[in-house]
What we know:
Blueprint: H1 4-27, H2 31-51, E1 55-66, E2 72-74, E3 81-88, H3 90-98, E4 104-107, E5 112-113, E6 120-124, H4 130-133, E7 141-146, E8 149-165, E9 168-170, E10 176-178, E11 183-185, E12 188-194, H5 195-198, E13 204-205, E14 209-211, E15 217-223, E16 233-234, E17 238-260, E18 266-271, E19 274-282, E20 295-299, E21 311-318, E22 323-329, E23 332-339
Parallel strand pairs: 1-4, 8-13, 9-14, 17-20
Antiparallel strand pairs: 1-3, 2-8, 3-7, 5-6, 6-8, 8-12, 10-17, 11-17, 12-16, 15-17, 17-19, 18-23, 19-22, 20-21, 21-23
Amino acid sequence: MRPFFNYMSTTKKADKKKKSGFIRFLTDRSTPMKIFFVLLSVFLWFLIKLSKEGYDAVVEFPVEYEKLPPNTSFREMPPDRIRVNLRASGFDILKYQLQSFRSIKVDVSQLERGASSSNKSYWLTNSNLGFVEGQLNDNVEVRYISPDTVFFNFSKVLSKKVPVELEVNKNYSKLISIYKEPELVPDSITITGPQEQLSRINSIFTELLNLTAEEESLLVNVPLVLPNNPDLKFSHTETEVRIRFTQMTQGNFEVPIEVLQLPEAYNIKIFPETVSLTYHVAVKDYNKVSPPDFRVYANYADVADKPESRYLNLAIEAYPAFVNYVNFEPKRVEFILTEK
């Protein structure tokens, strides 16, 4: 039997010989050329494989729908991608899988119309595979398309004009106010879109505008809060807001109380007969206000069927639009009812 140390020595010499042979291969000047030819061989083999026909693969294509009926849009968007089972050369399959292919275009005007409603159509994708084949390279066979049916539900496209509502946060004293109504340009916008969605929109609000009344007037563009809906189009995305501020002053009057719906057969005596009314008004409009501009009343019909009642509640019906913070005292009066 060969001694163990001789066997180990022989093994080490063999390993050393293998390593030295590999090092010589790497350091040999012809080695780069050998690697090049190896890689070239692999590349050529790969090209030969790809050039062969008869490969099957499933490729996902984007879809673009065009030529919709006039004044219509999709009520619900149909699929934006389809899966196509095709047979082609390896080159074609690799190209479609690796690069973004242009969209498959679907002429909606040529679709089959549903029998029950003119607003519904469908596309039987597998009934005419040549429709998709015609948009691919020659020698590409389309074998199957998923989904097999694409449904379309149309909606009429209309235009609707809605008012713009200003949202404000007032950060100033009651002794300062907005003079007259804020001016909005535009004060309404036109929205175009599907009829069903337009029916839910009755106004458009602005983003919240914080007012500090640090200047006599304000002119600013304020964005509109628009629905995040790609099917809707808006004539404007912002509005120009002009606001004028004014110093306020307080006024007061003694205003007579009217009694409404009193039967002709009765007389009524109320205590007191007037109210003390206070209000705020712009300094520049102070001289425009007079007692007849206010109407405070009690309605006898409120207590007609309550013989035990002693009081009539008061309410205010009218006062100038440029007046605010209107208050009056008392809020109710005693009365005595007598027959004529």
